[in-house]
Amino acid sequence: MDEAVRKIAGVGLPGVILLIAMATTGFTGAAAITAALAMLGPGGMIGGIVFLGVIGLASDALTKYGLEALLKGVYLQRKSDGEPLSNL
Fold first, then answer.
1. Band of pLDDT at residue 46, cut at 50, 70 and 90
2. 39 and 21 Cβ atoms separated by less than 8 Å
3. DSSP 23-42
4. Residue 33, CA atoms < 13 Å, CB-side half-sphere
5. Closest CA relative to residue 52, chosen from 3, 5, 11
6. Could you tell me if residue 43 is left (phi over 0), alpha (psi between -120 and 50 degrees) or otherwise beta?
7. Which residues of 32-71 are buried (b: 16+ CB within 10 A; e: fewer)?
């Protein structure tokens, strides 16, 4: 059950982002979807679709591990790569 809830939460965020982008375009129907996707990503509609996919993966990871664990992992990796502490 927890796995299903996590997957639904991960898929829901890109949908919410797309709906907000569609609302800001001022269009309706297919024109709103096209304009919103083009607005979201670099490279037009394809970039928007890729952007929503990346957001879906990121939100899935956030629901699985939590924000604190993800940020800690990112900064530990950057530190092990030799980045100075002043930049972190």
1. very high
2. yes
3. HHH---THHHHHHHHHHHST
4. 5
5. 11
6. left
7. bbbbbbbebbeeebeebbebbeebbeebbebbeeeeeeee
Q: What letter represents residue 77's amino acid? A: Q
Report d(CA 45, CA 35) in Å as an integer.
8
- The CA distance from 87 to 20, in Å, is 34
Q: Tell me the average pLDDT across 45-60.
A: 88
Q: Which structure tokens are listed for 62?
A: 């956030």
Give pTM, 2 decimals: 0.66
